[in-house]
Write a structure and sequence with these properties.
globular, mainly alpha, two-stranded antiparallel sheet
Amino acid sequence: MSYFINGLALGFNIGLLALGLALIWRTAGMIDFSYGSVYLFASYAVFFLRSHVGLPLWLASVLAALVGSLTGIVLYYGLYRHFIRRKAPLFILVLLSLAVFTVTESGLAVLLGAQRVYFVQGLLPGLEIFGVRLNAAHLSKIGLAVVVLALLWLFFNRTRPGSAILAVADNRQLAEAVGINVDHSYLWVFGLAGLIAGAAAIPTVAESGVDPFVGFGPVFLAFASIIVGGLRDVRGPLLGALVLGQAFHWAVWKVPSSWQEVVAYGVVIVVLMVRPDGLFGGVQKFHGRT
């Protein structure tokens, strides 16, 4: 049961990141490795607001999520917009986003040091279910994912910007032809994806602390979740993340914990060999777009 619950919490948390990455991939046609930079800025924001400014954790968390959104918007307007509007090749955008992520990691390591720091001291509060202790981080990861999914459903189905984003994701040329401002939709996408990354980062860093390299593992697992689940709809990245979350934690039942990533990414290799389009399909369609 403890493996299952830990895998569930990790899966939902990674699933949020995968949804943000899938949103960018489906609309802008971009594989955005700099999503890790957004994750890092939000992580350090909650640390400084809590530890140095002294804000309550809930307020620091809300502001940190907004920092994630603002980071996504700045990256789009300050950098990616120039290349996307000029229809830059995919490999240029991939290299650019990798460079941004690398510069962010290295820059933070130089400025703040590579040592891991904590803003929640001691054991996190929690409760016991079926003989397994659930701490606040587990509950936050699962509860936050459910809330974010519900809010995303409302946004995409009940607002004009949300409908415009869905139209652009489905057919960019047709959306432009009927008068949708694609550039404005991209701005919404990067801001919304940044908000999701900030929300996903907070319970993780509250549990395990912050350092300049804390974004690498979650973001790459999120990409792996997209490959496993596919891009056909919202189920794909989320269910792919839940599969990898379970694989990541059940691995330690029989093998040392150092093999966790080997097992998780081994699942990705098997899926690519058996079903290259992802379990629910759609990867090839959007690979063609990029």
